[in-house]
Amino acid sequence: MAEIKVIISDVDGVLTDGGMIYHSDGTESKKFSVYDGGGTALAEKAGLDIVAMSGEEAPLIGERCRKMGIEDVRLGVKNKLKESYNIKSKYGIENKEVIVISDFINDLNIMREFKSACPKSAPELIRSEADWVVGVKGGEGVLWHVVKEVLLWQEKFNDALGRYLKSRAE
User: Fold this and answer.
1) How far apart are CA 64 and CA 129, in angstroms?
2) Mean pLDDT for the chain overall
3) Are the C-beta atoms of 123 and 140 separated by less than 8 Å?
């Protein structure tokens, strides 16, 4: 974990609980955890980049991710492995410097290519493939937990937290 520079997170089932609510007017709702916004804030203070990547093109995903502080949001991605290589190229990093968070079979290829984590609510197949099963379900702060652990491993957590708290006091 000490070499991680970029976290690539799936959205549905990781940042959300995987459920989709369809309203009678045809719009859709998703439930996100505010804890993940705290994770993105600490990541930013520590220089850790986060990319949200989804196969869906739902505008609400982009809006919520950006509100949480994730600037690199990639929607409508059909080939996530190819896109992950584009991400590596953009950030100038190696495979060992990436961790992917996902919860379902559509991401198995990238989970096998990079370090990987999944929420405890992921199916058994995914949990058995992941390098790390995070102790919370999707939509309950998975990204927060991954950021926190990466920063603890890198011995950057306390500094990032201090910088975050200072920025909130100004």
Assistant:
1) 29
2) 96
3) no
Tell me: pLDDT of 170 over 90. no
What is the CATH number for 127?
Answer: 3.40.50.1000
Average pLDDT on 25-30 reads 90
Which residues, in sequence order, are bridge partners of residue 50? 7
Does 1 reside within a domain?
Answer: no
The sign of the torsion formed by the CA atoms of 46, 48, 49, 54 equals negative
Tokens of 58: 């739902």
> From the CB of residue 2, how many other CB atoms can be counted at a distance below 10 Å?
9
Q: Measured between alpha carbons, how far apart are the two ends of the chain, in Å?
A: 32
* SS3 (DSSP) at 59: helix
Cα–Cα distance measured from residue 21 to residue 164, given in angstroms and rounded to the nearest whole number: 34
